[in-house]
Write a structure and sequence with these properties.
- The protein is an alpha/beta fold.
- It is built from ten helices and seven strands.
- It has helices at residues 2-38, 46-53, 75-94, 113-119, 155-165, 180-208, 211-226, 229-235, 260-286, 290-318; strands at residues 42-44, 60-66, 102-108, 126-130, 145-146, 241-242, 248-249.
- Strands 1-3-2-4-5 form a five-stranded mixed beta sheet, with helices on both faces.
- Strand 6 and strand 7 form a beta hairpin.
- The longest helix is centred in the first third of the chain and has 37 residues, at 2-38.
- The protein is elongated and about 105 Å long.
- The N and C termini lie far apart (119 Å).
């Protein structure tokens, strides 16, 4: 009986200590969760960071270690901070009961120098996700998961990353605040543009209904796309290239490649050919003076032959096996 009483006397403090630790984790989450309802993410310092992330814990913690001071020159930190704030506030607003067991915090370098040194961080921002060490969501590994800042960073992208690591829990969606200034500027601009269009409509309508305007716009579009403009946009071709002898090569070899300047030259040639054809078909028949009409036919006919001959010679340069040719450019 005496040994039993001694055993009980030693076991009671150990049990109370375990209960105290368990209660401490619950109390910590309740304390920090209540603080997030007032302001999220939490602004942390060295002491509060250590308290929030200390084990054992039955909750998750997402902490952004950043450097917002201008003298530190962290552009990504400044750009990402608004997205982080939107995510944290959206999560706190959608999880008022704390069912997701997740706390958001921000530790700036100015308030957490010791933490940065203890983690060995040489750059910022760094986003760490601490998983629970106890409870139903406890993770096998106690190490924090680090987010990879690659590519454009948005609140939705980080939300997806966090949700992937927190299965079987609520994931409140990102809710961005309404941009009242943007809406006001848009409405005022729309009203202003509408007023200008209303006043100028008697002058705009004849231009819209003019067949010559639409014919010109259609011709410009046709010349752009037949000369290879879309090919350049899709392939991101170079404007020009060197010929290997210190000069510039204007023509890319083969029919499956071209340069940006080459496209512009070909578009200009197509334009001259189109204008010559239109002049011969429309302007020449309407000219009443026979001599002027004959002059128009000779001039524009010569331009048409010369330009088409030069165009065929370019095809021959791009592909020596091209079978067609026309004097004088052989």
């Amino acid at each position: 009986m005496r040994w039993l009483s001694l055993l009980l006397s030693f076991s009671l403090p150990l049990g109370s200590l375990a209960a105290k630790k368990s209660t401490s984790s619950v109390d910590r989450f309740a304390e920090f969760h209540a603080a997030t309802q007032a302001s999220s993410p939490l602004k942390l310092a060295d002491a509060s960071y250590k308290k929030l992330t200390s084990a054992p814990r039955d909750y998750s913690v997402a902490v952004l270690l950043t450097a917002l001071e201008p003298r530190l020159g962290c552009t990504l930190c400044v750009e990402f901070q608004p997205e982080w704030d939107v995510l944290a506030r959206s999560w706190a607003k959608g999880d008022k009961k704390g069912e997701s067991r997740l706390i958001f915090g921000t530790l700036d370098f100015a308030n957490g120098r010791d933490t940065f040194l203890s983690l060995g961080l040489q750059s910022a921002p760094v986003l760490l996700l601490f998983q629970p060490t106890t409870g139903p969501h406890a993770a096998a590994a106690a190490d924090a998961i680090r987010y990879d800042f690659t590519g454009p960073q948005t609140a939705e992208k980080v939300h997806e990353w966090i949700a992937r690591h927190l299965p079987n829990r609520p994931h409140p969606p990102v809710s961005r605040p309404i941009n009242y200034i943007g809406w006001a500027v848009t409405i005022v601009s729309a009203l202003g543009i509408g007023g200008v269009v209303f006043k100028a409509w008697p002058y705009i309508l004849p231009v819209i209904q003019n067949r010559q305007v639409w014919a010109g716009l259609s011709l410009i579009g046709i010349l752009m796309f037949t000369s290879g403009h879309m090919f350049n946009q899709i392939r991101k071709v170079p404007y020009v290239a060197g010929d290997g002898r210190g000069g510039i090569s204007y023509w890319a070899s083969g029919f499956q490649s071209q340069f940006g300047l080459e496209t512009q030259i070909v578009a200009f040639m197509y334009g001259v050919l189109s204008f010559a054809t239109i002049s011969l078909a429309v302007k020449a028949p309407r000219t009443r003076d026979p001599k002027i009409q004959q002059l128009i036919v000779i001039v524009w006919g010569s331009v048409l032959v010369l330009m088409y001959s030069f165009l065929l010679s370019i095809f021959k340069v791009k592909n020596p096996g091209y079978p067609f040719k026309l004097p004088p450019f052989m």
